[in-house]
Amino acid sequence: MRALITGGSGFIGSHLADRLLERGDQVIILDDLSTGRLANIAHLDGDPNAEFVLGSVLNADLVDHVVSRVDVVYHLAAAVGVNLIVEKPLESLMTNIRGTEIV
């Protein structure tokens, strides 16, 4: 199965990627690295079944492109953390609500 994980470089998304790859799936990780970390998925570098795409769920063209290549989407991308949401409420709402609409 081919899977897309939005927010795949975050804690939960990176662990999900590991499990999907362990069972033999192909995984595309879409993340803008706003709260996720490349270090969480660095061990996947060179894995032929794993692909990292740097980008935002707010980019409808990019989302359409990667969604067209997969069988299932795990949508985990979100603005997280109290400080971030308090300091950037509009951006957080856009990511969490509009991003979900686009996905």
Automatic annotation (TrEMBL):
Return the protein name: NAD(P)-binding domain-containing protein
NAD(P)-binding domain boundaries: 4-100
Q: Which SUPFAM superfamilies match?
A: NAD(P)-binding Rossmann-fold domains
Q: What Pfam families would the database entry show?
A: GDP_Man_Dehyd
Gene3D superfamilies (alphabetical): NAD(P)-binding Rossmann-like Domain (3.40.50.720)
